[in-house]
Amino acid sequence: MFTGIVQGTGRVVSIEDKDNFRTHVVELPEALLPGLETGASVANNGCCLTVTAINGAQISFDLMKETLRLTNLGQLQVGDKVNLERAAKFGDEIGGHLMSGHIITTAEIVKVLTSENNRQVWFKPQDRTLMKYILHKGFIGIDGISLTVGEVTSSRFCVHLIPETLQRTTLGAKKLGDSINIEIDPQTQAIVDTVERVMASRETAIEAASEQAQQA
After folding, report:
1. Whereabouts are the Lumazine-binding repeats (predicted)?
2. Which CATH class is domain 105-184?
């Protein structure tokens, strides 16, 4: 599990492509290295990846075909930076919200509005059916960053970014057209899906009762 509080950024120093498979080597900040072992989980742009090799500060991660398809990690090139967070430990402060590191879709940056101390960024999810889970003032994971949803339309949503977030994460360098990883809040998803099932069940029961009444 993760908290959505980015602990630093890392630079991709090499990429090895194989058939439906890729290995990224990322240079981690020194603060994220103590106690790191192979098999540990580290979120890269919000995507939970397993450490497969350690060579000083250069850490290897393997990306499967599905990861490359669903996330923006497959678009990375050598020199690009990623947001990093090590897995939360029992007793850690949850400064953001609980996140699994399972990216559900990507979204395109479609509008950026900048003022003196705030930046409003609008996103359009690739899978628009997921908009039902993105609610005003709800939680969402954006490239591994725990953020609160601002305005929402039928196909887009926005977040507001303070200078600290822009400085500490990769979002400060993002521009129009860039793709970001999305993790929706699992509790919101569970509530919405449950309500939909209950409503569908009620509609089915009403239709059945109506048919019986017509046949009587």
Report:
1. 1-97, 98-195
2. mainly beta
- The answer to whether the 8-86 and 105-184 domains have the same CATH topology is yes
Name the phi and psi angles at 50, rounded to 5: -100, 135
| pTM of the predicted structure, to 2 decimals | 0.88
For domain 8-86, say whether CATH 2.40.30.20 is its number.
Answer: yes
Distance, in Å, from the CA atom of 73 to the CA atom of 46, rounded to the nearest integer, reads 10
Give the least confident one: 80-94, 181-195, 202-216.
202-216
Domain ranges of the chain: 8-86, 105-184
Output DSSP code: residue 117. S
For the segment 141-170, what is each residue's pLDDT rounded down to a tens digit?
Answer: 999 999 999 999 999 999 999 999 999 999
Closest-CA residue to 162 (of 153, 150, 175, 177): 150
Residue 88's CB: how many other CB atoms inside 10 A?
19
How far apart, in Å, are the Cα atoms of 184 and each of 46, 60, 63, 103, 118?
11, 27, 21, 8, 23
Residue 16: phi, psi to the nearest 5? -115, 115
Q: What is the pLDDT of residues 81-118, one digit of tens each?
A: 999 999 987 766 666 678 899 999 999 999 999 988 88
Q: Which amino acid is at 29?
A: P
Spacing of C-alpha 161 from chain mean position: 16
